[in-house]
Amino acid sequence: MVDRFVFDRYSGSEAPTYVPDSGVPDVSLTDIFPRKLLRETLPLPDPGERETVRHFSALAANNFSVDGNFYPLGSCTMKHNPRLHEQAAALEGLRDLHPYQPEDSVQGALGLLYELERCLCAITGMDYFSLIPSSGAHGEFTGMMMIRKYHEQRGVKKTHVLVPDSAHGTNPASAAMCGYATVVVPSNSGGCVDARAFSRALNEQTAAVMLTNPNTLGIFEEEISELKRMAHEKGALLYYDGANFNALAGIGAPRAMGFDVMHLNLHKTFSTPHGCGGPGAGVVGVTERLRAYLPVPRIERRDGRYSWSQGSPETIGTIRSFYGNFLVCVRAYAYVLRLGGAGLRRMSEHAVLNANYVQRMLKEVLDVPYDRACMHEAVFSCASLAGRGVRAYDVAKRLIDYGIHPPTMYFPLIVKEALMVEPTETESKETLDRFIEAVRAICREAREEPDRLLRAPLSRPGGRVDEARAARALEVKWNPAAGR
Amino acid sequence: MVRYSKTHEWARIEGNTAVIGISDHAQKELGDVVYVELPSVGDAVETESQYGTVESTKAASELFSPLSGKVIAVNEELAENPQWVNEDPLQKGWMIKIELTDPQSAENLMDEEAYREFLQQQS
Amino acid sequence: MLDAIGVRSAEELFRHIPNELRFSAPPLPRGLSEYEVLQLLRRRAGENTPLSRWNSFLGAGCYDHYVPAALSSLVSLPQFVTAYTPYQPECSQGILQAIFEYQSFICLLTGKEVTNASLLDGATALGEAVRMALRLNRRGWVLLADSVHPEYKRTLRTYLSAQECICEEVPRAAAGTLDISAWRRALSREVSCCVVQAPNFFGLIEDAEEIHRLCRTTDTLLIVVANPLSLALFQPSGDLICGDIQPFGCGVNFGGPGGGYLAASRRMIRQLPGRIVGRTVDAGGNDAFCLTLQTREQHIRREKATSNICSNHSLQAIAAAVYLSLQGSRGLTHTARQCVRNTQYLYRKMKGLSGVTLPYGPGVFHEFVWQVARPAAVLEALRRKGILGGYPTGKEFPGLDGGILSCCTEKKTKQDIDAYVSALEEILHGGQVRV
To answer: Where would I find the H helices in A44-169?
Structure first.
């Protein structure tokens, strides 16, 4: 940690005066409110501006970020975030708007959202998008609730959702929130959904199939059209988890693959930044037959004027307050405009090229469990290092010493000692070579000096952080009594 | 008399009761145990069905009872000291004590020798 | 690179995707230069009228508080903006400490022992809180005060629509506050949780502790939706406290992003959704932080997880921590008090206006409802004078015909409020709107 907590900082200066005294008569709180409802003390620190700036600047300096480090975190698409996005989101005419302002006074904001929806429809082939869902998981919840409503309206009893064994954890968790059981479908030796097992698991009670394509092994599901045919035959809908859309933007449309509902992570493919874990946006697209169930409100355009509408009576309803993460949508819109159709395509081509280069160059030192051309990410197994007592965890931690953020570890679950590398399109060959060299050096070290690896990161004075202790002796807030 | 199940639980049979925990192999696979969720005294447990959960920092695993019976004691101290499951899985790391429905059923479990062979086959 | 991989073009890497699944032409027109994009967005921005150009009294869940310059600067630091979730503690200590401090701030304000690293917004935080209560006591009945924000109520209903549970609304008393006898009648041992908002949607301060005492008689959990700024002045109450951190330096942002918070007792921590930062040490024995209790979360527990939440609103949580640090106890108290003062001043001025009815008393934090005949026309007339008078409550609350919810934050001055009242006077009595 930095030398102390914000709670231990004190400026000794005057109370901040960010706004003038309003000039209205003072009131006594006890004249208006019963004393028992009033707070006696407010135990907050008073660090003042100078100390606050020092404190949080020191905290910011103590991290890896895309601006400072190569960040090949699989499934997270940690690409460069254009500064244009920040400038756009800082425009007063976009930022300083109240959600309940009269529609006449926010026509530009509504128009922007409307246009972004049209762009996303063009890119994915979907007929409509709701921009309200505020994260990928929120998008999954929204999409699965629409599927639920769709089946309910048709009077069909559905009980479960099919999910491949390589799926993101959010898929089964979202299905469960929508009242569905999860049936796991195994992958075949090629790393794709096993079509025969899929067919066996599928029945009239299957509400939906949740797939990400390319899947989490970075492999395109070539039998997708066949899977779609089987699913639709049983009255199940196809849900597209857009977490891996960075491989396909401008190249292919999920609609063409037969998907009925999908979400896109604007913070991944569309490079609105990740902000230490959020805010993002998990916008949801649907085909015409699911239009009635879209969450509300919807934007309508009539005679060149935009307005909010309360949607159809069959809507799944409200999924959060107001209209979603508007400023995230602003950034994504800037990204789409900047790249255009051809630019998006080049973007995905580079992402796939970079991943294949890394896969090819590391093949000699790490196992590639599914040895074929990958899409935007490459999954390796560190199982061959296990004989030396070295695990994927150790390789990941050692990368920190090279100034590289560790890849995603132990995911997908079906690969032993997995390392999932997603270099993204914005990295140069030089950076990729530096990464490749680092991994090779670590693998050499695993053979020659495995004990060193087990202590990595070595460049960090205190070494590894004890995660077991954090969970055993839970301490989730500052404890003034402990004096620390 | 200690017996083992294929899901890596052990049971120490004492007359018509059994003390139950997870094997040394299981604790190694799990890594640092940080939390154990156990049933209450009086609850019924059944062979091969889940009676609790054991958690490491990166995984949550179900605990399956090797035998059927009624819970008569629970290792309350694991709440404060989950690391005992790693440090001493067969003694201090015990989880529950049950009154057996059928003391004879322990015959179906593996003895130490058979469990060691089972582990070898698995790897 | 192509040579190393053994292909002639990047396009070849997509060969295995069937042709019919690929676009034959780019799906969108050509890209624009940075300058063109900025010009286009400036044009869009120019078609809006930002709050700075209005005399605004809009609130209703999204509040126009002053955002200190230092906050905007700190929250724009690229090491915060372009980092991911701090899953790797060895290269994320700064983020982890910032979020730990955010958690500590929320616990200090709410008087609770545990909270998470943020949720998406206040409405989804309420959805998560109720789902958490249902898991904690495994009952299937939810009592919901009708004075909760309408968007929160609707979101909650969506979150509960796939659950086996009944959600029943409890009407407010004539004074606009909780009707203790109605709650007493509705409560039973089947009720999992009671949901109230304090201050409620109409700005009224509530005695939630009274409901809390009732809840204890049936082992029912009390969930309080609380504007966290109000906690600078008023006693927190409830077994679970949730809401939106938007007032803490997030700005209005056309409604998003703000961020959700959810605080609870220590014994409930295993049912808490979302990420949690915990304190620990590193191998060298130094203080350190990491994400903890991840076994509750979707990436480990999958269908048995406490929630599906993955991405949260960490940057807003950090903004809130920075805001509270900049303000400190003195600044925050001063801000909250100026909200109260301004609102009392407007309330008294309104009371003197004929044609205006005040259905409820002055015991409000920073917003209150007033009634008038033809509210839409009045709001429109105000708008023509550059005033955003408030949020019309009529549609949502049939009992409150002609209601307008008006809010005064600390940014309002005596001149702003006087201008509002005289414009209203002119509209009501100058014949611009017939009443």
So the answer is: 48-61, 83-89, 92-95, 107-124, 136-153
